[in-house]
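Sharing in case it's useful to others searching the archive later.

Someone asked me privately for the predicted structure of LysR substrate binding domain-containing protein, so I'm posting the question and my answer publicly. Question first, with the sequence:
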Amino acid sequence: MDLHPDVTVELVLSDGYVDIVGQGLDLAIRFGALKNSSLMVRKLGDNRRVICAAPSYIEKHGCPGTPDDLAVHNCLVMQFGPVIDREWSFVIDGKKCDIMVSGNRTANSGAQIRRWCLDSRGIALKSIWDVRDDLESGRLVELLKDFAPESQSALQIVYSRGSGSVSRIRAFIEFLVAKL
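And my answer, the predicted structure tokens:
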């Protein structure tokens, strides 16, 4: 904003899917596949999701050896809008497999899921970007590495073709890309 003092920012934070057109937003930064083809996309990078838990959770409840073992663990589940993310993807015997998980805590905030995980409340599926420091420091431990899917989810900027000032949005995107 120092470079462009006339710019104003209205920041809407949500871990759920937001209808940027319906809500009159210029753009959104999202992970995952784009479902609305009327939106323009600029990829910013890749993101890997990891299964993790606090060492004290593992000491008390044991470490799952396979994805199927998650059935006897308390999994911390994200809710994205109306969608509860209970299907976690793995690779078993070379094939993608979705495992249904359950637990006693669901939140629509990735930060809250991380806090519960750090507090030994269960096992979480988190973005590596969210928990990298926790893994490196030993506050969290990555689990089921041998079953992790190879695919990554893209971090991308999405915006509407009909946005008020596409040149302004493109300038912001280029600025953001340069900073990353």
